[in-house]
Specification:
Ribosomal Protein S5, domain 2; 5 helices; about 210 residues; five-stranded antiparallel β-sheet; 10 strands; Alpha-Beta Plaits; alpha+beta
């Protein structure tokens, strides 16, 4: 698992008009190339009567699956600028389709590049970008008498409590960034005077919204 990466928050869409042409951007998170291809085909089916359905995607931890499709627009004027917007925002696992309904005014190569890039950016703004940071799930088993104090300490220092399990003791699941687990574990030991049982229980991504680049 990557320690962190950027991707889109989920599904979103946005529409703009440029020189009487309608440009509709559709954005989706896709963690496999098959999912990206299926999303593109879904939009093409929805807008079967559109002038163009241009697309691009980047998939994989090492960006190993990339594709840009001009769908009949002059070579390099549609799919590539969409792909460049994905790259500029350093996104992974992201697919964008921009549907165009021609309005009767030709834009020229430069105009098309700007229009498709602007449309892709509008789509990203609509859906939002998130940073996925890899965290370790730390199990914290304590006596009930420590619960209020420990919860307060964790929240004051910005730690996220994922879950609380109540039995004859209290078991908290606390999230900490990968590589920083020992620091948190030592804090908990100090706060509880060692009266705690700690376990590490796998990893999970935590998502935080970030601002996109145009």
């Amino acid at each position: 698992m990557l320690s962190f990466y950027l991707t889109v928050s989920g599904y979103g869409e946005a529409e703009i008009e440029i020189q009487k042409s309608r440009f509709i951007a559709y954005v989706q998170r896709a963690e496999q190339e098959e999912a990206a291809v299926a999303f593109i085909e879904q939009i093409k089916k929805k807008h079967w009567n559109a002038t163009h359905n241009c697309s691009a995607y980047i998939i994989g931890g090492n960006d190993q699956w990339q594709k840009a499709d001009d769908d009949g627009e002059p070579s390099g004027t549609a799919g590539k600028p969409i792909l460049e917007i994905i790259k500029k925002n350093q996104l992974k696992d992201t697919v964008i389709v921009v549907t165009r309904y021609f309005g009767g005014i030709k834009l020229g190569a430069g105009g098309l590049i700007r229009a498709y890039g602007k449309s892709a950016s509008a789509g990203l703004k609509a859906v939002g970008i998130t940073q996925r940071q890899n965290h370790t799930r730390i199990g914290v088993e304590i006596d009930y008498t420590f619960l209020g104090m420990l919860e307060n300490q964790l929240r004051l220092q910005g730690y996220r409590i994922e879950d609380k399990i109540f039995t004859d003791t209290i078991r908290l699941i606390v999230l900490e960034k990968v590589g920083q687990e020992e620091i948190l574990e030592q804090k908990i030991i100090d706060w509880t005077a060692g009266q705690v049982t700690l376990t590490r229980e796998g990893q999970v991504y935590v998502e935080t919204p970030v601002t996109c680049e145009e």
